[in-house]
Amino acid sequence: MATITEKSEILFIYETSYNIPNGDPFTGEQRYDEETKKILVSDVRVKRYIRSYLEHLDNTIFVSGAGESITAKTRIENLAKNQTATTDIGELMKNWIDVRLFGGISTLKDADLKKIKVKVGGKETECVNGHVQYTGPVQFALLNPSLNRVNMRMHQNTSHFTSRDDNEQGAIGTTTVVPYSVVQIHGWTNPTIAKETGMTDDDKQKMFMGLWYGTSGDGSSFSRSKIGQDSLLLLEIIYADSHKKIYGVDRLVKIKVKDADKKEEQIRSMDDFDFDFSKLIEAAKSDKVSKVRYYTEIDVIEAALDEVGEKLEKIEM
Question: Is 109 exposed, middle or buried (0-12, 13-18, 19+ CB in 10 A)?
């Protein structure tokens, strides 16, 4: 299958309710911009949603989150031993969909490389090209801010467990949760880099499914800290030419609180606000934009997007 040919930017919007969308790995507390009062979600968190969902569908993943204690070296060795097509490690790595999407690295030493034997054409041969570094044709913003301001809420809970038959222990834990947020993830696809990894349109479609379903309750989003998330809107702005782009794609969608007396920090559901697509509608008129692809399961959002006009095209999930 041919690699992708269109350059595009992605906006994926989802809502969260009383959870921790992206905790800091050291403290567990939600990433937060104190000045803007907006929560932040990292690209690593987004890619984990996608990878976990794809893995759930039995896709072979290089950077697995299944809890296996397997090194990248071992994964590459296992993949090489179970195929008969090529001895090139770089070509082998393209079998993993997350490498085709997000890139990957192999640092096999020459001594390790010689130990991997592959039968190609009935002849046992050593592998080659152990040092590989693929940049991913799909990238997401390092940190993605919510569309609304948020006042964090402190939450306390207790735990009670028995460490031994005669020793019962209890503890009180304190953390902060996000009462409600509308998170926007900004991404890019690059067809030139896709030629290196072999990313196809089918890969992109699976990635979209991973974004949509993997964020809203499947895969790694089905956990205590992530329950309360729902996907709202997926947009792909496709450019007419790979050398052109429009400015400020991450600011094309805004939210407007319905009640003039209510602040952004006080919204708790879509009943409290409307999406403002006026800048998106204007941007779609540019000759730099070939089409605007979208997916939503919410009628009011779909109706509002109709104003984009003839360039609007629905993504099939």
Answer: exposed
Question: How distant is the alpha carbon of residue 61 from its chain centre?
Answer: 14
pTM of the full structure: 0.91
Closest CA to 225 of 28, 14, 38, 27: 28
Q: Are residues 310 and 201 in contact, defined by beta-carbon separation less than 8 angstroms?
A: no
Both tokens of 240, joined, read 């007419």
Gap between the Cα atoms of 9 and 43, Å rounded = 15
Q: Which residues pair with 230 in a beta bridge?
A: 15
Q: Where are the domains of the chain?
A: 8-57+138-314, 72-135
**Tens-place pLDDT, residues 187-225:** 999 999 999 999 999 999 999 999 999 999 776 666 666
- Per DSSP, helices labelled H in the chain are 43-56, 72-81, 89-93, 97-102, 110-115, 191-197, 201-215, 278-284, 299-305
Asked if residue 168 lies in contact with residue 193, where contact means CB atoms within 8 angstroms, the answer is no
pLDDT in tens, 27-55: 888 999 999 999 999 999 999 999 999 98
